[in-house]
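ok posting inputs for the iron/sulfur cluster job
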Amino acid sequence: MEHINANLLNKIAKINISLRKAYGSQFVTPVTPDIPFGGNVENSIGPWPEYILHGFNCLRSEKGFCTPCGYSNVPPVLKDKNVIYEYLLKQVDFIFHNVNKTILENQFLKAYPSDLNKVAITLTGSFFSDYEISTEYRRKVVEKIVEGAEVNGIKLQLFIETHAEDVINSYNNGELSIISDSLRKLNTVVLMGFESVNEVSRELLYFKNLNIEAFENAVNIIKKLGLRPGAFIFAGLHSMTQNEIVMDVRQSIEYLKHNNVLPVLMISNFKEFTVDHLLFSYGRHFVVEPRTVLKLMDILYDQYGENALDIPWMIADPVGGPPAPEAHSFKNMRGSCSQCAEVILSNIRMLRETYDWSTYFENVNKLNACYCTESYNLLLENEKYFENNSLIDRVVSNIEFVEKNKDNYIYSMKNVFDA
Ligand code: SF4
Ligand SMILES: [Zn+2]
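and the output
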């Protein structure tokens, strides 16, 4: 990150922290949740349920990293570790005491037949973070999942989400090797935030605070333990044009394919009290256009084709939360008409269940005849003007703008001032 200005990164961290504090200050009483977030496939990484155990916040969110992430903006919990850890176990119990409703009735994957019921059960930020859960309780969570599957006589494929550095720590202190038996039993896929292979995108625009060597080490550890590694790719960072978004995603997907890491594409949507939503509110940041999403899907097709033996890639529902987004690609578009947007969204949802590319292409190719192809092309033409300034210059100007307008934004959002 040497060539990325440290002062600029400090500024971004401060802004992110103050927006997140303003969000959190709306909640007066901390909660002790006994049911997890999620469950609806429209809030999930795939056509199966995803549960986020509601516990302590993500440490990286509190430190101001991960600019677009509103995902860790959740109501604060009681600051008592012993109480909250027990409540995490209760949330796992809730899932397995209601397994028909929570898992079995929510299996919508129609391709790659298998007797495994897929489910994501993870923590707010990072599954292997010692800040969110102790080693002892993490082991209890995993054991409870194994036991829940056995008691109900079902086989599971578990998806967990974590930060690469926490994988490395957990491996180095021996914990990961101890629980890896259980994780293998659960056919676990370990998904890590990666966001982009490009350093400026990952470290400045997303502000992930993750170097590529650490990511690759974590991938190797996961493979060595006999688990499948996956990584999130984020499409739609602020300050980028639609063309730049496509290039960024292409390079990232090529890189993951080369390293045999399962990509999970996330199309950005804007959550309140984030820099991305602030810029969007003032007309300085836009959603990934539905027709750009088509180009991203083309990249997946080019890279993986139709003959994979197991799920080759995943895409999170582009409209999903939690929390529910304020703006997304299929509501706030500029260069596509609403009919085309609707067709694109429903076909992406169909494709992530069936991986049936022929039906997908048959449906979306019809959209070439719509007048909005012209508006989209015009938009791309107009955006070329922005590319006269370097991406870093655009970021500097956007961050200056955010600094100037942050207090007004907070006021207008919820009438809450950051102390
Ligand atoms: S590590 Fe994940 S949950 Fe935490 S702030 Fe970053 S993106 Fe959000
Ligand atoms: Zn149209």
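notes: The pocket of iron/sulfur cluster (ligand 1) is lined by residues 58, 60-61, 65-66, 69, 71-72, 125-126, 163, 193 (CB under 6 Å). The longest strand covers residues 116-123.
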